[in-house]
Amino acid sequence: MRVLEYIGTRELRWRDVPDARVVDPGDAVVRPVAATTCDLDRAVIAGRTPFPAPLQLGHECVAEVVEVGDEVSGLVAGDLVVVPWHISCGTCATCSAGAPSRCLSVPRYAMFGLPLGGAWGGLFSELVRVPWAAANLVKLPHGAEPEAFASASDNLTDAYAASSRDRRTRLVRRCSCSVAPASGCTPARSPVR
Ligand SMILES: [Zn+2]
Ligand SMILES: [Zn+2]
């Protein structure tokens, strides 16, 4: 399969890598069918971030489920899903409290498309492995237009974090982020109120 990588200022390339596959029984493998770019992608490509190359890009997409692990419920091959940018387990204390962007089972800011909490790959790829698929993927209704929902991966998850009752996920008032002010991408550098 191919993945889109940032390899230096204003330089991108498609690179061949082994196909994504189910590794753990809670995984799904999905095929992105509609993806959108974020302001942060533009900053990375322009060389305005500290993230080193090479870097697999993409954290907003709608995808088709290709395969699910034995423990994944509620999803089958062929389903159309939104793939949220942040990765969470769905069962730890903070996930259970409704704050999946602060999941305790992964490094903070674990996400697709940026190397903030480990290397999870990017969504500008032909295939993507999604851990804890039942918790992370959001199934779309039959007939939904993928292009209409692709940016929900980031925009709606950020809005949720900003409006969450969990004080730690509330809107960052003075954010240096070049993305949405409530984005989970950068609050580590900003005072949380
Ligand atoms: Zn973003
Ligand atoms: Zn969790």
From TrEMBL:
Its cofactor is Zn(2+). Transmembrane segments: none annotated. Pfam families: ADH_N. This is Alcohol dehydrogenase catalytic domain-containing protein. Residues 25-141 form the Alcohol dehydrogenase-like N-terminal domain. It comes from Lentzea sokolovensis. Coiled coil: none annotated. InterPro entries: ADH-like_N (IPR013154), GroES-like_sf (IPR011032). Signal peptide: none annotated. Keywords: Metal-binding, Zinc. The lineage of its organism: Bacteria, Bacillati, Actinomycetota, Actinomycetes, Pseudonocardiales. Gene3D superfamilies: Medium-chain alcohol dehydrogenases, catalytic domain. It comes from the Bacteria.
